[in-house]
TrEMBL record:
Pfam families: RecR_ZnF (PF02132). This is Recombination protein RecR. InterPro entries: DNA_Rcmb_RecR, Rcmb_RecR, Rcmb_RecR_Znf, TOPRIM_dom. The keyword Disulfide bond does not apply. One of its GO terms (biological process) is DNA repair. It comes from Lactococcus formosensis.
């Protein structure tokens, strides 16, 4: 970072502030989202009777990458 031009450092800092202002935790499952409720929780095609308990959003992402689980998270 110290070897990069100042304008790149400023762009990075602006991007970090933007994420901090726009991204929040889903009110239903704790996933990262820009909305009150994330896209997974809003998806009517998912099985709302099946819940996978995860500790962190990164755990949810790992399960989602398998494309095998079609329920919701908590």
């Amino acid at each position: 970072l110290l070897q990069r031009p100042k304008d790149e450092a400023l762009a990075l800092s602006a991007a970090i502030v933007d994420v901090k202002e726009r991204v929040r935790f889903c009110n239903e499952c704790g996933n990262l989202t820009e909305e009150e409720v994330c896209a997974i929780c809003r998806d009517a095609r998912r099985d709302h009777t099946l819940i996978c308990v995860v500790e962190q959003p990164v755990d949810l992402i790992s399960v989602e990458r398998t494309s095998e689980f079609r329920g919701l998270y908590h």
